[in-house]
Amino acid sequence: MTRGQGKAALGIAGLVAALAAGAAVVFGRVKDVEVPRRGAWEAPPSVCVVEPASRQLVGEALGVLREHGLAPGRLLPEGTPCAPRDGLVVVVVDPALDGETLPGLDEEVAVDRTAWGRTKVSQRETGGPILRVEVRLHPRAQLTAHVHELLHAQGYDHPRAAPSGHVLHPDRASLTDWRGVR
Description:
Blueprint: H1 3-30, E1 46-49, H2 55-67, E2 74-75, E3 88-93, H3 107-110, E4 117-123, E5 130-137, H4 143-153
Parallel strand pairs: 1-2, 1-3, 3-5
Antiparallel strand pairs: 4-5
Helix pairs in contact: 2-4
């Protein structure tokens, strides 16, 4: 093989490797994500915010869900009693989540795995209609955490092997990847 043929072969091999890597990335980005659902509401719920939870952030999160074709319910007027009852999502700030981390982690990783929220979905039977929900948020939870927890309130669960950046990733969620949320 001449020197010129060797360079051409390396160039072709490099191009093939780059295309293969690009195909893997493209394949990974378009691959569907299976998002399990515990159940669904029979009718859109009302959403009640208990001070000091942010009505503004909850309202923004509900808007994000609507933008993605979901019917998350309506935000009740300020001052509405929020006693748990059927057809209601109650959103509260839980100071006990401050400093809580997700289990099974070493200290170096725990900083990245702050428990930003917990959602309790009540149903009569597994897979049946959702009756009521309590969303507990970290005192410093931002919009992504609000959206993530309100998706749980809609019955969505964490996907198995969720890609980082998926809106329902358990600890690395973002608002850029909504695959499988319908």
